[in-house]
């Protein structure tokens, strides 16, 4: 059943993308237009549909193409600083129904929410539900790129966003583990290096500027805990893809943070635990992380919060494929109405 969805009306998504690409007034109205009585806010409906497409993108190229098309529209919207500010502000609060048909499930949010949190849920879910050895690198680059652009805005504007950030970083580091485990299948895929840089630089940006946008010290501590926990995987990740030989990423930042805390655990609290014949608890590790801020120096690469603006010419091949799908759906729609 799901393989046949969405219906042929989805051809309209190509028009939505076209307007998003060329018409700033359309973009502004899409993001700001209020809901009519008894209806969803238009952008909330668009985000909702995208979440359904992403959870089922593995079923067919057709669904995957439409999901990617909507993500390109997302990218265009969050690259506009005025629209991104609106999406990340309390002014954008509205109920959003997101797809929850496949596990793992993100926390259920009832009632109104800041629109940026719904967009983040959509792309985080997209990362969790489309992992396979024949990875769609273009799709994942878009997903992580949208996360990077929103995080960059939050960091620069010092906007603290209440969100389940633990799931955000868990998905990113799970992606690192997947890329490391299946490197033999993935390392020669086109554009894989851009995806690797996006993932590494997003985590490094969060480590270096998280105090500016994470809602609480506990959320910041949790990020460090996750990076320390993934330390061995990060070292293997770096070696497997030769990340150390490229200056376009900050893998050294991630590994140095992990090494800093592992050394503290060995020489400080770790010694105390050994003396007691005990293994460190998660609470004790969290305490070490807080203590470690005093001696930690994060040497992050400059420009982590910058990114290249969208250029349609870079996506021409994909857009031709989407256009063929949309034309076929349009013909079916017209033929079925006769």
From TrEMBL:
InterPro entries: ARMD3-like, ARMH3_C. Its main location: membrane. Signal peptide: none annotated. It comes from the Eukaryota. Keywords: Membrane, Transmembrane, Transmembrane helix. Pfam families: ARMH3_C (PF08427). GO terms for cellular component: cytosol; membrane. Residues 107-334 form the Armadillo-like helical domain. It is found in: Membrane. The keyword Nucleotide-binding does not apply. This is Armadillo-like helical domain-containing protein. It comes from Verticillium alfalfae (strain VaMs.102 / ATCC MYA-4576 / FGSC 10136).
């Amino acid at each position: 059943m799901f393989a046949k969805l969405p219906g042929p009306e989805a051809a309209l998504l190509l028009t939505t993308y076209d307007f998003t690409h060329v018409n700033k007034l359309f973009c502004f109205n899409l993001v700001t237009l209020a809901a009519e009585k008894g209806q969803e806010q238009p952008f909330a409906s668009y985000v909702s549909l995208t979440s359904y497409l992403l959870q089922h993108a593995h079923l067919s190229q057709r669904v995957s193409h439409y999901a990617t098309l909507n993500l390109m529209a997302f990218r265009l919207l969050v690259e506009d600083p005025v629209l991104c500010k609106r999406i990340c502000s309390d002014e954008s609060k509205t109920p959003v129904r997101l797809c929850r048909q496949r596990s793992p499930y993100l926390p259920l949010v009832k009632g109104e929410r800041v629109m940026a949190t719904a967009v983040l849920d959509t792309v985080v879910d997209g990362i969790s539900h489309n992992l396979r050895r024949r990875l769609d690198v273009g799709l994942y680059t878009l997903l992580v790129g949208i996360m990077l652009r929103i995080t960059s805005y939050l960091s620069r504007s010092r906007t603290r966003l209440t969100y389940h950030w633990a799931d955000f970083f868990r998905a990113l580091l799970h992606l690192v583990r997947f890329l490391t485990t299946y490197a033999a299948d993935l390392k020669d895929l086109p554009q894989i290096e851009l995806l690797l840089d996006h993932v590494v630089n997003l985590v490094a940006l969060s480590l270096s500027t998280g105090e500016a946008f994470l809602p609480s010290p506990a959320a910041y501590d949790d990020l460090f805990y996750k990076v320390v926990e993934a330390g061995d995987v990060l070292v293997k990740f770096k070696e497997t893809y030769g990340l150390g030989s490229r200056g376009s990423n900050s893998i050294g930042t991630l590994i140095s943070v992990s090494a800093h805390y592992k050394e503290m655990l060995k020489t400080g609290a770790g010694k105390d635990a050994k003396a007691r014949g005990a293994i460190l608890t998660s609470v004790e590790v969290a305490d070490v992380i807080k203590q470690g801020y005093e001696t930690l120096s994060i040497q992050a690469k400059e420009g982590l919060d910058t990114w290249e603006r969208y250029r349609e010419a870079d996506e021409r091949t994909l857009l031709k494929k989407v256009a063929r799908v949309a034309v076929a759906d349009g013909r079916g729609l017209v033929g079925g109405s006769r």
